[in-house]
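Chapter summary example.
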Amino acid sequence: MNISNGFFQHLFSRSQSLESLILDCVYKGLERFKICGSQSVRILKITDCNGIAGEIDASNLVSLEYSAYQIPMLKIENESSQLKHSHISLDSYPGDNLNSSWFCELNKFLLNSISWSQVSLQFYECNEINMKDLQLHQRVATPQVDVLNVNFLWPLIDLCPTFVDALLWSCHPKRFNLRLSTLEEPTIEMICFMDHLLNMKN
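The structure predicted for these 202 residues follows.
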């Protein structure tokens, strides 16, 4: 759908009692949106709007969902104390450059909110990550992620322990769910990879 920034803001300003806002495949024209001082919006869902930037100030927001291929460029102001469901889902492309900068960007975004109910990530590739680079960007604050869901599309990727280390560094989840999508029998590499996870103390 092609919608301009001005047209969206006009529609939003005329909908004072709007409770649910869903942006789906709005990736042409609308580069930035603002939800400023809204007391009515309770549900916000953004799907497949890659590259969109937004400012969210909704004091009664209960549910926030984001699903796309890119780390969102969302700024959350005055986070609602009623926000009980917050879920970000990212599905990478084969060939994406998933390096230490990507994990730093993810970490920076997650710190934009007090907490996240779920973060779901799917990967086609798994690269060695320089953990020293991440430590140079270590922040005093850490994200509050309740559940981190990660799906590796095996055997399309080589499993790298430092990749998972970087995931835990960037998200700091309370619970970590790992899925290896494969039709094959477990290999020695897969078993070693799982052993690495079990032996991790943090």
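To summarize the output: Residues 188-199 form the longest helix (12 residues).
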